[in-house]
Automatic annotation (TrEMBL):
<keyword id="KW-0663">Pyridoxal phosphate</keyword>
<comment type="similarity">
    <text>Belongs to the class-I pyridoxal-phosphate-dependent aminotransferase family.</text>
</comment>
<protein>
    <submittedName>
        <fullName>PLP-dependent aminotransferase family protein</fullName>
    </submittedName>
</protein>
<dbReference type="InterPro" id="IPR015424">
    <property type="entry name" value="PyrdxlP-dep_Trfase"/>
</dbReference>
<keyword id="KW-0808">Transferase</keyword>
<comment type="subunit">
    <text>Homodimer.</text>
</comment>
<dbReference type="GO" id="GO:1901605">
    <property type="term" value="P:alpha-amino acid metabolic process"/>
</dbReference>
<dbReference type="Pfam" id="PF00155">
    <property type="entry name" value="Aminotran_1_2"/>
</dbReference>
<dbReference type="InterPro" id="IPR050859">
    <property type="entry name" value="Class-I_PLP-dep_aminotransf"/>
</dbReference>
<dbReference type="GO" id="GO:0008483">
    <property type="term" value="F:transaminase activity"/>
</dbReference>
<dbReference type="InterPro" id="IPR015422">
    <property type="entry name" value="PyrdxlP-dep_Trfase_small"/>
</dbReference>
<dbReference type="InterPro" id="IPR015421">
    <property type="entry name" value="PyrdxlP-dep_Trfase_major"/>
</dbReference>
<feature type="domain" description="Aminotransferase class I/classII large">
    <location>
        <begin position="43"/>
        <end position="384"/>
    </location>
</feature>
<dbReference type="GO" id="GO:0030170">
    <property type="term" value="F:pyridoxal phosphate binding"/>
</dbReference>
<keyword id="KW-0032">Aminotransferase</keyword>
<dbReference type="InterPro" id="IPR004839">
    <property type="entry name" value="Aminotransferase_I/II_large"/>
</dbReference>
Length: 394
């Protein structure tokens, strides 16, 4: 039967995370696996009011086909927010509304990647990006990330091997590792790509979720004309509406627009209108501050619990924001093997393996702190500590 399906789908890895989520349905299991935003912060009543408002304001026009670029007032709001929060001058014409930023990844693959062309990929990197680009059968050129950002020796090594068409980066509170690129690292990466026939994708769904540290400069500023910015309403407003956007230079935008039309004509006009109305009538900064407070507290609770319950040979990242942190086990202990033991202890996480494009077994894992309160984090980390000690024979 396999030969019936296209070659392009055969190479795409399945989402191991979806398999884990099935295990995590058991209410006695504590899950640090799902990378979901906390449902407690979905602005349900405000969205209900916004929906009522748009019915009254737009009537039947709400249900009509719309333009492929996206709802202009929403694009104007996004442009204004870039100006206000980051000092970036971006015109609404450079913004395309997408069905989640995930679709932005697919559209970039469609427009830029021929089979076998190079994609610089963070290792570990966002599984959804690995999946989206895999469809176009590129050659992944992996570059490790550490607490500073991309490991420059590895970047240099890859650039000496070939010319990537596309470079993928999540410079703020990376999924999965929770790290952020330093200013110096961003400058060094930008300098290496400057002038090359390579588009850098700056995927920034977590940028607003900062609970410590200071913001660094955007690649969009450091590498103008070569950077595509991806943004999303998933983490700060609502993921289920599937609303994201991309910012691209004019020539690339023309092609992305064609790809968007070919894919789904346009993003849901109805949900764009609702979110725009919500943004007009509510204080989004206050809403984001509430989320950031909770995630910051939960992240600190997780780090403190790990200090108490994990063997000191276990290392982990200290995020300044976002929803994830990244653990490295000692002595090449397999995270997949630990997973089995952890399920017995009634706690789950995502083993690192799916976040790498190579087929090796890794001793790293991702923990998400967004959906678990501090008291549950304490219990879950204690259980995970026990599982690790058991695996280490301690
Ligand atoms: N990029 C990254 C780094 C993500 O973590 C996610 C969501 N998990 C996405 C993109 C996709 O987000 P969206 O809901 O906007 O499609």
């Amino acid at each position: 039967m396999d030969s019936f399906f296209s070659d392009r789908i055969s190479d795409v890895p399945r989402s191991f995370i979806r398999e884990i989520l099935k295990v995590a349905i058991d209410p006695t299991i504590i899950s640090f696996a799902g990378g979901l935003p906390n449902r407690q912060f979905f602005p349900a009543e405000e969205l209900q009011r916004a929906t009522q408002q748009v019915f009254e304001r737009y009537g039947r026009d709400l249900f009509q086909y719309s333009n492929s670029e996206g709802f202009l007032p929403l694009r104007q709001w996004i442009a204004e927010r870039y100006r206000k929060t980051q000092g970036l001058e971006i015109s609404p014409e450079s913004i395309l509304i997408t069905s989640g930023s995930q679709q932005g990844l697919d559209l970039l693959g469609k427009v830029l990647l021929n089979e076998g062309e190079g994609v610089l990929m963070e290792a570990p990197g966002y599984l959804g990006a690995i999946q989206a680009f895999s469809i176009y059968r590129p050659e992944f050129m992996n570059v490790a990330v550490d607490e500073q950002g991309m490991v420059l020796e590895e970047l240099d090594h890859q650039l000496a091997r070939g010319n990537p068409k596309l470079a993928y980066s999540v410079p703020n509170f990376q999924n999965p590792a929770g790290i952020s690129y330093s200013d110096a690292n961003r400058e060094a990466v930008a300098q290496r790509l400057r002038g090359k026939r390579c588009v850098l994708v700056e995927d920034n769904p977590y940028g607003d979720l900062r609970f410590s540290g200071t913001p660094a400069r955007s690649f969009y500023e450091l590498l103008p004309g070569q950077t595509v910015l991806l943004g999303s309403f998933s983490k700060c407003v609502i993921p289920g509406f599937r609303l994201g956007w991309l910012v691209a230079p004019e020539a690339l935008m023309q092609k992305l627009l064609v790809a968007k039309q070919a894919t789904d004509l346009h993003t849901s006009h109805f949900t764009q209108c609702i979110v725009h109305q919500y943004l007009m009538d509510n204080d989004i900064d206050a809403h984001i501050a509430t989320i950031v407070d909770a995630y910051g507290d939960q992240c600190r609770a997780m780090m403190e619990a790990m200090d108490r319950h994990f063997p000191s040979s276990v290392r982990y990242t200290r995020p300044d924001g976002g929803m994830f942190l990244w653990v490295t086990l000692p002595g090449k202990l397999s995270a997949m093997a630990l997973f089995e033991e952890a399920v017995k202890q009634q706690v789950v996480f995502v083993p690192g393996d799916p976040f790498y494009t190579d087929q090796q077994s890794h001793s790293t894992l991702r923990l998400s702190f967004s959906c678990v309160d501090a008291a549950t984090i304490e219990v879950g980390i204690e259980r995970l500590g026990l599982a690790i000690k058991k695996m280490l024979g301690e």
